[in-house]
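Running co-folding for adenosine monophosphate.
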Amino acid sequence: MAKIAIDLKSGSIKKEDNLIIGIDLGTTNSLVAHIVDGEPVIVRDPAGKTGLVPSIIHFALDGSIQVGNDAREHLVDEPGRTIFSVKRLMGKSYNDIAAFEHQFGYQILNDDQDRLVKVRVDDSFYTPIELSAHILRALKERVEQSLAKSVEKAVITVPAYFNDAQRQATRDAGRLAGLDVLRIVNEPTAASLAYGIGLTPEDHKTIAVYDLGGGTFDVSILRIEDGVFEVLSTNGDTFLGGDDLDQAIVEHWVKQIGQGGHSLPDRQRLRLEAEQAKKVLSAERRFFTEYQGIPLELTRDELEALIAPFVDRTLESCRAALSDAGLKTDMIDEVIMVGGSTRIPLVKQRVSDFFQRPVHDELNPDEVVAAGAAIQADILAGNRKDLLLLDITPLSLGIETVGGLMDVIIPRNTKVPCGYARNYTTSVDGQKNLKVAVYQGERDLVENNRKLAEFILRDIPPMPAGIPKLEIRFQLNADGILQVFAKELRSETMTSIEIRPQYGIDEEEMARMLLDSIRFAEQDMQLKALTEARTEGRMMVQSADKFIDQNTSWLSEEEIARIRELSAELHSAIQGDQKDIIQSRIESLNEFTTPLAHRAMEVHVAGAMKGQVIK
Ligand code: AMP
């Protein structure tokens, strides 16, 4: 196990460059921080006013891309080209987000509901990874401008409840933005580090992190022991935050204005006034303004009555998180407040009452996560000698999947010992054998990585494609030995091998592999997206053929001809290298065949009913 420093310009190994930035990649806002003289410093805009970069991307008609405040201005005039809340899409399929699709002003592809979502702007398709990379690139540029030097290494935070796919997506976004992501850190862990909790190995504590932002609420219970942060439980509401409080104020005013006989002002403008009122009332007792001749007023008491039900809901989540962790309130040693909405005095008061202890609110609640990420980065850079660095895997380990793509099972920089499993299935009917090829490296195509071993899982009982459940498990022990297990879960057929990933590779070779992955990130991602689109396209062409075969009896000649035509167009696009063309032809074929598939279903059901004997 090793820690490697690489010089991205010369491609050589270099003396440890100690600058690693910490990034809080948020749903509504993102921030970047670094350490100066041992203390975290948030990098602010050139005017020095704010460290917050709105997590919004605008694709202008002239092809230019804006991120942050410049992009936010287009939310109203060009909603279809202005992408926000990308974090809600990370690692998600359309099925995962269908219930709240209406909240987005932009177009989300729904052609293949089980695959990862994509966002459509005109004829281009963007993955959440590409979109997040735009935000990360803007943050990277912000630091580079402020420090007048380039940065390549980062720590990025994610919510404690993010799963493997969401973490991997965040890592990929970093890489695409030209960043070597040394570690993905949980947001509550970062917040805790910002308060210096868990920084010394003797710190054995159980803490609660209460995070109420603009659109989401999370509470996490962490156990800290010997510098290791374990998430005991998480709870929350992905649609509860400051925005809901603003909305409650708007409703209150709308009722009042109605009674006063005034005509209703634009709701969007009223919402901005409501947010202003809420913020003012965190410091004062009364808010008054006049808007288009209408007096608007709110007292702190009124505000507290309006928002109490929301605060109650967050406390319900805290109760659930404690119960999941098997703890009582008096077993919590520290409570940390994160997110702009925790500035509200009622929120602080109620949370403090609930946990029966004062809460930590000394730091800026918008900045604690980024500050903690910078501290974690500083630890990784080796600047805090007092802290133990745990052994980590220097390169990612994974297997080859369809199209020669690398599917990472243990990401690089994972603490060892560790074990991860992932499920796969077959792509061919009656497939009996499965080849498992194990690779090491950071590139998206296995041909650019280092092959460690290959073996075959035999005697899978014959089943249609997609039915077998194949689990591939990687177990890496503290001595650096990797065991790979392949198992068909329905039949329990299993085989395994043992590999030493570090055997025959030196630090220089590892550094080169890392370097290449960043250098070729853009190209690799494009190739990966193209390969995925081709695989998807091939499957569509096959299913179209099958569909025609099975339904010739009732399909009209025109319909068959049209399917053949669309399928041929898709087939020819697959031969080319334009991902977006493949994607739009998949969509066209899908659009045409979906209603036919519904009809096929009705025909089959009707047929089955006819054949049924009713006794
Ligand atoms: P975040 O997502 O953490 O940036 O949180 C932003 C949310 O915090 C927004 O809903 C803001 O309206 C809210 N917020 C910011 N400052 C204050 C304040 N002084 N009082 C109440 N809410 C605030």
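Result summary
The CA atoms of residues 101 and 409 lie 30 Å apart.
The chain has 15 helices and 26 strands.
Job closed.
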